[in-house]
Specification:
The chain has helices at about 1-35, 35-40, 45-110, 115-125, 130-145, 150-160, 160-175, 195-205, and strands spanning about 150, 180-185, 190-195. It is mostly helical and about 210 residues long.
Length: about 210
């Protein structure tokens, strides 16, 4: 059993050695064929010299092969980085062109679609409001959208009768600038400013600003 294992190990060692000296054997065989006189003068035919020369030459060849493989790997990494950078550049250019095209299409579409602000301005310009109506809206803006206003409060503020203020409140409510609020003040309905009323006052005050 031990002898068999020793034989196997010896065969493995011989195979490794033959594989190691294979490059040296190839070069020496080629050299002997090409220059037999010089090879004979160098003593390559001698077994001992041939063994040493095969080992040294094989070691040198394997080292050169390792260096060549390392150089090839470095070259491949460099080429891969260049290719990757080129691909990223191409994709960036394409995405940039797509974003530019999208922006131009959006601008063209916006030119075709009428602006909502202009239509709102036209609608508001058709509302016939007097000075009292504007004063009521201005007061509602000052109070804020979350606060309610009522006829008695406005009458006291403007030194008017509640009946006069009620007509203005009803007109503004019909034009969607004021809205009802649950509850009452001294028997009169409460109102609050709507978004339309706030937009109207903002547009009304804008030219004056």
């Amino acid at each position: 059993m031990l002898t068999e294992w020793l034989t196997i190990l010896r065969d493995i060692g011989n195979a490794i050695y033959e594989l190691f000296v294979m490059p040296g054997d190839f070069v020496l065989s080629w050299f002997v064929v090409q220059a037999p006189v010089v090879a004979s003068g160098l003593g390559i035919d001698s077994d001992h010299s041939a063994f040493m020369m095969r080992a040294v030459l094989s070691l040198l060849i394997w080292c050169l092969l390792a260096v060549a493989v390392w150089k090839l790997v470095r070259l491949w990494q460099y080429i891969a980085r260049i290719i990757s950078a080129a691909i990223r550049t191409v994709f960036f250019r394409i995405s940039q062109a797509m974003r530019g095209l999208k922006t131009r299409l959006v601008c063209k579409f916006r030119q075709l679609v009428p602006r909502r602000r202009s239509s709102s301005a036209n609608a508001f310009s058709e509302v016939d409001l007097n000075d009292l109506d504007l004063a009521v809206l201005r007061y509602a803006v000052v109070r804020g959208p979350g606060f309610a206003i009522s006829a008695p409060e406005l009458a006291e503020q403007f030194t008017l009768r509640p009946a006069q203020v009620i007509r203005s409140l009803v007109k503004l409510q019909n034009n969607k600038m004021l809205d009802y609020v649950i509850g009452s003040t001294d028997g009169f309905d409460n109102y609050r400013l709507t978004k339309s009323g706030a937009v109207f006052m903002a547009m009304w005050q804008q030219p004056r600003a």
